[in-house]
Amino acid sequence: MLQLDVVPTTRIVKLASPSFFYSRFFGRYDIRPKEGSFQLYVNGYESGNTVFARWNYDKNLLSQEEEAKFQLLFQKMCIVDYVIRNTDRHMDNLLVRHVPGQEINLAAIDNGLAFPVRHPECTSRFHSFPFRWSNLPWAQAEFDQNLRRHVLSLLTPQFVHRLCVDLKKLFRHGIASSNYMLVNSQLRVVRGQIWNLRQALIANESPCDMARREPIIVNRSADIVMRNPPQHHGMIGLLSSHLATPINNSADAAVTAIEPEKKVSENLIIF
């Protein structure tokens, strides 16, 4: 997706096994292939809690070069989690491999509770779904400049459109595959997260600052984009060319909407 390489190789597969749960059919088990995600097992990794406790106990375990590399890997994970709106990142699925003086790496596994149909912050007044990594010290520093330039160069309307097309194909394997409205809601959240990510990178914010941004959703209106092609490059130019257009002037306008159920008064044509 964003060429960040912090999630182990994952594929959609069909597997069958007598150890799987199957419902009974006329008193018999129908052992048939089940579809799901299959993620490559990573060797030599430990939970974040274990590694971080070791680093806190012995400050000399982590060299300056290793800390800088981990900072970069951590920021990559923050970007992935933010875009997919991961609601379940914790220290048991943030894995770290550290061999002092030789190797340091990070693996963000178990990303099943992602791509929600609505922003989790807006579904309940009593239960929040914060990005737990936002309180860690590595989330306080501004994004690495090389990483910042790399991601900003990718986040064009064309890239986001292709990404959404690929995600639609992926979502066909989910429980919402037959419900177009649910899939569309998932993509609106993704587009909103990407919009906030780009704004955070432009403002040179830290992952912690990015996590505090107000959640938005973004609809797509391909017809308007084709009828009025802007003479600007990149997502910001595409947005700024339509900022002065009121929503009421176009029935099929694409808008950003701030959850819950509150739309802004500009016509933002993107993706």
List the helices and strands and how they pair.
Blueprint: E1 10-15, E2 24-25, E3 28-29, E4 34-39, E5 46-47, H1 48-57, H2 64-84, E6 94-99, E7 103-108, H3 145-154, H4 157-171, H5 180-202, H6 207-211, E8 216-218, H7 222-227, H8 234-240, E9 256-258, E10 262-263
Antiparallel strand pairs: 1-4, 2-3, 5-6, 6-7, 8-9, 9-10
Could you give a quick summary of the protein structure above?
Helices cover 36% and strands 14% of the residues. The protein is α+β, with helices and mostly antiparallel strands and 271 residues long. The protein has a single domain (10-218), classed as Phosphatidylinositol 3-kinase Catalytic Subunit, Chain A, Domain 5.
Strand content: 5-15%
Number of strands: 10
Q: Rg from C-alpha positions?
A: 21 Å
What's the number of helices?
A: 8
Cα(first) to Cα(last) distance is 16 Å
CATH topology: Phosphatidylinositol 3-kinase Catalytic Subunit, Chain A, Domain 5
Low-confidence regions = 222-271
- Supply the helix-strand structural class: alpha+beta
Question: Regarding CATH, which class?
Answer: Mainly Alpha
Number of domains: 1
